[in-house]
Specification:
By secondary structure, the chain is α/β, with parallel strands linked by helices. Helix content is about 40%, strand content about 15%. The protein is elongated, with a radius of gyration of 30 Å.
Length: about 150
């Protein structure tokens, strides 16, 4: 019995003398962060535009991306999208109220329209943007290598 008490006191003494391990193995953390970085690098360009639009060509210089910009797209069938959300026919003025174009700090509107669309359809959307107070509008085109 006495031997058992001594052995248990020795075990307690050893464990109390050991210092807690204060090192963190960062290798798994770095591995996970690198995988996440690669995933975000691959998916970020895919998130830029969700509506397939065949853009007209232009030799204009590219504009810088702004964090508060709103993308309005008009596809080949004439359907209008604000960012990736479809706007029901005749509901564009109501949908533009949520954009809050008037006043200070108005977002930049980027208008992406399919090249096969009627010019009047694009101008009708631009007219609604103007009525809503959206005066900072950029027209998006694809790059062209030769002058028209």
């Amino acid at each position: 019995m006495a031997m058992g008490a001594q052995a248990s006191s020795r075990r307690r003494g050893r464990s109390s003398r050991r210092a807690a391990m204060a090192e963190i193995n960062v290798t798994p953390l770095v591995d996970v962060m690198l995988v996440l970085l690669i995933i975000f690098m691959v998916t970020a360009p895919l998130l830029a535009s969700g509506v397939p639009v065949e853009l007209p060509e232009s030799r204009a210089n590219a504009l810088d991306q702004q964090p508060d910009q709103v993308t309005i797209s008009i596809d080949r069938q004439g359907f209008i999208y604000i960012d990736d959300g479809l706007v029901e026919q005749g509901q564009l003025p109501l949908a533009l109220e949520s954009v809050r174009c008037g006043g200070e700090g108005a977002p930049l509107i980027t208008l992406r329209a399919d090249r096969a669309l009627d010019y009047g359809r694009v101008m009708a959307v631009m007219g609604e943007l103007n009525r809503a107070g959206c005066n900072r509008i950029s027209l998006v085109t694809s790059g062209s290598v030769e002058a028209p």
